[in-house]
Amino acid sequence: MNDIDQFFDASGTLRRCGSWPHEDKSNFVSAFPPYPGSGDLPLYTDEQIIKIVTDPNRRKMESICPSEHYITDQHSTSACNGHAAAAAFTRARKLRGIQDDWVGSGSFVYSWINQGRDNGSALEDGMVEIQERGVCSLALNSASQIFTRQITQEAIEDALKHRGLAAYHCPTLQHFKSGLAAGHPGVAAVMCGPNWDVMGADYVPGVQQGPGNHAVCIEDVVLRNGRLLYQMANSWGTKYGKGGRVWLTDNHFRGTFPNHTFYIVTSMEERK
Predict the structure, then answer these.
(1) Which of 2.40.110.10, 2.40.70.10, 3.30.2130.30, 3.90.70.10 is the CATH number of 5-20+32-268?
(2) Where are the beta strands (DSSP E) in the chain?
């Protein structure tokens, strides 16, 4: 069993960081294909990405998924992998043009991958779970319902309507950044600790050294003050950062990318 890092955030809420790193990433075989880096999903240079993200017609995720409805809160559970995967699915669904207020339940996803204990999971676990079992509406499964014994039949049936991902694992951080620039959400790991609440007016948190302990949805890549930043949707409610969002640099992933597999979600499936 993995040890779970935990600390109190600036609001006084106990946060449990439940994303397990690989024991050896070089031997890990993902259930998802590698990001191709060609065709409709090319590998961009930073110069190309800057041109893409500064296009005035580029869609803004804050407008597509407003914080007050689309930022979730895992509270003091270790359910970050479920929340990150569900958030990526929800955003892929919105980008597909489905116009309703449906939000996926990260706790539903987590309940099927935690083996009956609130002790975290691996990053790929949540992705595979949505592929196989689906994700139900947050309205049918709250953040506190993190064990399968709490799941209702209605939630299970709703999840079957929202099952399946078109997703890719990213061989390099540049592949990940390229997928975001192409307009797709991603799932990644960050390292949380006391520095995570240290941020200025730019909402860029301090860098915490470590292999990565917290799964998040990365919504976009943006250009600010001459540097490319990753726009992150956390699962700690809207009081964190700017309405639940912060912006990360490459340095936030220096220690985590070598120890976790990152994903880009290009589409999802919807059944009646």
Answers:
(1) 3.90.70.10
(2) 5-8, 14-17, 19-20, 121-122, 165-169, 186-190, 214-224, 227-233, 245-248, 263-268
pLDDT band at 2 (very low <50, low <70, confident <90, very high): low
| Contact present, 232 and 65 (Cβ < 8 Å) | no
CB–CB of 62/190 below 8 Å?
Answer: no
CB–CB of 219/240 below 8 Å?
Answer: no
Strands 214-224 and 186-190: antiparallel
Other CB atoms closer than 10 Å to residue 23's CB: what's the count?
Answer: 8
DSSP 66: -
Query: At residue 86, what is the residue type?
Result: A
Confidence class for position 1, pLDDT limits 50, 70, 90: very low
Q: In a 3-state reduction of DSSP, which class is residue 111? A: helix
Work out the end-to-end distance of the chain between its first and last CA atoms, rounded to an integer number of angstroms.
39
Q: Kindly state the tokens that stand for 258.
A: 């070598």
d(CA 200, CA 118): 33
Q: How far is CA 187 from the centre of its chain?
A: 4
Q: What is the mean pLDDT of the chain?
A: 95
The C-alpha atoms of residue 171 and residue 155 are separated, in whole angstroms, by 35
15 falls in which pLDDT band (50, 70, 90)? Answer: very high
242 DSSP β-pair partners = 245
What span, in angstroms and rounded, lies between the C-alpha atoms of 178 and 60? 17
Alpha-carbon distance 247 to 229, whole Å? 6
Q: For residues 193 and 4, give the distance between their C-alpha atoms in angstroms, rounded to a whole number.
A: 12
